[in-house]
Design a protein that fits this description.
The complex is a heterodimer of chains A (120) and B (106). With 120 residues, chain A is an all-beta fold. Helices cover 0% and strands 54% of the residues of chain A. Chain B has strands at residues 4-7, 10-13, 19-25, 33-38, 45-49, 53-54, 62-67, 70-75, 85-90, 96-97, 101-105. Classes of the chains: A mainly beta (120), B mainly beta (106).
Chain lengths: 120, 106
Amino acid sequence: EVQLLESGGGLVQAGGSLRLSCAASGFTFSSYAMSWVRQAPGKGLEWVSSINYSGGSTYQADSVKGRFTISRDNSKNTLFLRMNSLRAEDTAIYYCAKCRGQSGWYFDYWGQGTLVTVSS
Amino acid sequence: EIVMTQSPATLSVSPGERATLSCRASQSVTSNLAWYQHKPGQAPRLLIYGASTRATGIPARFSGSGSGTEFTLTISSLQSEDFAVYYCHQYNNWWTFGQGTKVEIK
């Protein structure tokens, strides 16, 4: 059974930093791309960042470019999101998601999410 | 950026009735379109990928259709567990989601 367990969320002041983690199990982690998706309070889903299976290619939304960094440790089956220069508008539940697909990546499994609250 | 527009924002349906949700892309996404179901406090759940292929374990009452810029998710006979928010998602050119359609009990 695929399981994705996010951690690392919490309350942080604007301008601060956090590192989110996503522990994966139930599949061969090193074979799949992974992504982060967030949901701000009362809003819809927003793609944040993706990384290929090896970590050699990463992609970020314009809203977080230059502030957030996605990475992975395939030896520990763990995905990370380093978030710097946090803003109030980064307040959201952050989900990690396993990617699948040939012509493009959709998200076939998701974690339960971790809440990040940025106070101004 | 490809903008995904879902309609309606809210759909009121009685159990057992059919629900039809629409999603429009600002430019062609070919068939690289997925649908997700999301309930409060839960992980989003993949329903459909490739515009029309049901994900593993998804009941046959869920079906997807369309290509290019116009897509539809149909729930043939709504069950109590189907009341949720549904998102379309294009993965043809980067990744963007629609704003969601809330399916509520009429």
